[in-house]
Specification:
The chain is built from 19 helices and 13 strands. By secondary structure, the chain is of the alpha/beta class. The strands form 2 sheets. Strands 3-2-1-4-5-6-7 form a 7-stranded parallel β-sheet, with helices on both faces. A 6-stranded parallel β-sheet has the order 10-9-8-11-12-13, with helices on both faces. The longest helix has 24 residues.
Length: 433
């Protein structure tokens, strides 16, 4: 591409995600110009880290608010105070010459607005977590998802030039239902692309485990250290109750649990404030929080996190929402996240909760970890002690550089982007969106 203007790929996100970083980093290496446009203020994340993947970063720095009637006044006040930065970010955005725009949800309404405003530019809709898959509008209402965003999700599926998704391959066949409606007409360019491992993150197996040091000091019982990594928004710790339910069983097995939570739109201090003495969360999980087996760690940049967690023996992947409503469990069957890639990049086997059927199929078929349920976690120490740990590690070494490698799967992404671009070019000659 020397001597020519680089093809500009723009990523529109509410806040940055590691999976998008990995994709952008590879595109940048391949000679594309990569631009990140962020809508929300990302207080808990380092801007410096993301510069490796993006040539330009444009931040609107909007404060996070749930869009509902009683939030309208705070939203207007916050926006008015930030007008200068919004105008500057908008001006920089409008000067761009995108070859293609990749819009990551949720929410979906910024993606829908982008499709409406930029009708001649190829646009990819990347819902990330397909929330409407729960089928029930009742469930979505309980979660605080506004109706207009559900309508926006359907609009994006039907009007984007391409749709990429990160769950099970069959996930895209289960969109229709009470929430999104029926007869959804998807674009011809569809890509199933998982949160794979990246060469930039993969490290050598760490044989200097924390448990090895512990076991030299203590002779009565084998010390085991498990790690959990996640990201959190401003929804409050009670939304993470399912994680701490698992933590409770782990500490009762006299196993150490280390957790690293990365705030998305809040600071670490704001996150810690949720642990205040009189909170509902603290009252419910006091046994966990006060246990010598529970270790809460400050967040790290994604690349710093991988060598840090490599000193633990296992990575925990709890299930997500737990509900009696079967429709609410649909998304768990198909979902997977970047934390699995993080554990494999660190060279540690995964402990995955049973409701995540697709994720568990990846783990069991490639023998990279164990699956537990609400009953078996009560006896997790026995399962861990019986496991062939070295065999799991050998399988991880093969899997993370083979089938689960971002680099190995990357040509599929390039073909998908080109197909979406060609579809938009053809549409521009006739009927546009």
């Amino acid at each position: 591409m020397a001597g020519k203007r680089k093809k500009q790929i723009v990523f529109l996100e509410p806040y940055p995600e590691v999976m998008v970083y990995k994709i952008a980093r590879l595109l940048k290496k391949k000679g594309y110009e990569t631009i990140s446009i962020r809508l929300l203020e990302s207080k808990g994340q380092s801007l410096e880290f993301y510069k490796d993947a993006f040539d330009k970063i444009i931040s609107f720095n909007l404060r996070f608010f749930k869009i509902k009637l009683n939030n309208m006044l705070p939203i207007l006040i916050s926006t008015s105070k930030n007008l200068k930065n919004i105008f500057k970010a908008a001006t920089r955005s409008l000067r761009l010459k995108p070859y293609i725009i990749i819009c990551r949800g949720g929410p979906s309404w910024p993606c829908a607005l982008t499709i409406k405003l930029f009708k001649k530019i190829p646009i990819i809709y990347f819902p990330y977590d397909i929330r409407s898959q729960v089928e029930s509008t009742k469930v979505l209402k309980k979660r605080g998802t506004p109706k207009f965003d559900i309508r926006a999700e359907r609009f994006c599926f039907e009007n984007a030039d391409g749709v990429m998704y990160k769950g099970a391959p069959e996930e895209i066949n289960f969109l229709e239902g009470d929430a999104l409606g029926y007869d959804i007409k998807l674009p011809p360019a569809i890509l199933n692309f998982l949160p794979y491992c990246s060469k930039d993150f993969i490290i050598h197996i760490n044989k200097n485990k924390l448990s090895t040091k512990d076991n030299k000091k203590r002779s009565k019982e084998r010390q085991i250290h498990i790690v959990n990594v996640d990201s959190v928004g401003k929804v409050g710790l009670m939304s993470m109750a399912y994680v701490y339910d698992d933590f409770l069983q782990i500490i009762r097995n006299r196993i150490h649990i280390h957790t690293y939570s990365r705030p998305n739109v809040s600071t670490w201090g704001e996150f810690l404030a949720m642990f205040k003495e009189d909170s509902e969360f603290t009252r419910k999980y006091r046994e966990v929080i006060t246990s010598p087996y529970f270790h809460l760690h400050p967040p790290l940049d994604p690349k710093e996190l991988i060598p840090e967690i490599s000193k633990y023996e296992w990575g925990l992947a709890p299930s997500g929402f737990v509900s009696k409503d079967k429709k609410e469990q649909t998304e768990l069957k198909f979902a997977t996240g970047n934390k699995i890639a993080a554990y494999l990049e660190a060279g540690i086997p995964v402990l995955s909760e049973a409701k995540q059927e697709f994720q568990n199929s990846l783990i069991t078929e490639n023998r990279t970890g164990l699956v537990y349920d609400l009953e078996s976690i009560k006896h997790i120490r026995k399962a861990i002690e019986k496991a062939d740990y070295e065999k799991f590690v050998k399988n991880i070494l093969k899997y993370r550089k083979g089938k689960y490698s971002m680099e190995k799967n990357f040509p599929r992404l390039i073909k998908f982007l080109e197909k979406a671009v060609n579809n938009r070019k053809a549409a521009n000659k006739g009927i546009t969106r």
